[in-house]
Prior knowledge:
The protein is mainly alpha-helical. The chain has helices at 8-29, 39-47, 50-54, 61-77, 81-124. The protein contains 5 helices and no strands.
Amino acid sequence: MSRPERGPNMRIRRTVGRVVLWAVDALALLRPRPVLRTNSLERELASGNSAVLTRLPQNTVVGCNDLAVADLLEASTSTDRHERKHLELSAERWSQRAAMLERMKRSFRKRAALDEASHEFKRDRVPTTPPHP
């Protein structure tokens, strides 16, 4: 039974091994992330609606949900515990942003409906004029 090698060669091998592991982890972070598209988004883009083309995915509910799903998929395939935790937190934040955008959309619709009702009420109200003496 031979003893493990000691000395300067062992230190060099250990250092090279650590550098290689670090490089592999660094390259894993540079992998392109998958981009998911839903059928509704593809249909809107195909319709040629210019407002849809200017909307960024992170500014729509569907886009945020797609980014959350993409992060969860990547986290499920990740072998690095730190990267997996980071991607799971990112997916949670995208889901929270999607919920916030949905609440804002409902709030804007509610305000618009109230404004419309207010204008209709003012328009339909018969002005009362005092009798002229």
